[in-house]
Amino acid sequence: MFNPSRDQARRFLFDTWAKQKQAAPLTDLEKIALAVLARHPEYHPIVDAPERYLERDYLPEFGETNPFLHMNMHLAIEEQLSIDQPHGVRALYQALCAHTGDEHAAQHEMMDCLAEMIWQAQRSGRGPDGDLYLACMKKKAGLPEG
Prior knowledge:
Blueprint: H1 6-21, H2 28-38, H3 44-47, H4 50-53, H5 67-83, H6 89-100, H7 103-124, H8 130-140
Helix pairs in contact: 1-2, 2-5, 5-7, 6-7, 6-8, 7-8
């Protein structure tokens, strides 16, 4: 993807949803975003109301899932899978699909690993560690480490 601001990332989802409702043509990236939105009907009222949710904060102390972070993590995973980056992520995703029996559940398992990798990178002040990410996915898929 690119490096959008929080508002730009949210507007992308709002605009994609609005275009879908108007039966307007979608770009390839919007089609992927729409597929993510379709799998999360609980977020439809949110993307239907940009004036209410564009600037809303989702703070950890409130215990709420940030729907925009969640959907954008799905988009990041879709991008990783499309280019197999980090190398091997696609095969491990297939293993997770077999293990969970569901593509969406497999992506949620990946999301946990992606969040852990990002947290570790922030904590250590280093870049994201693809090996850590893949090792987490292996573990979740029930595959031997190494």
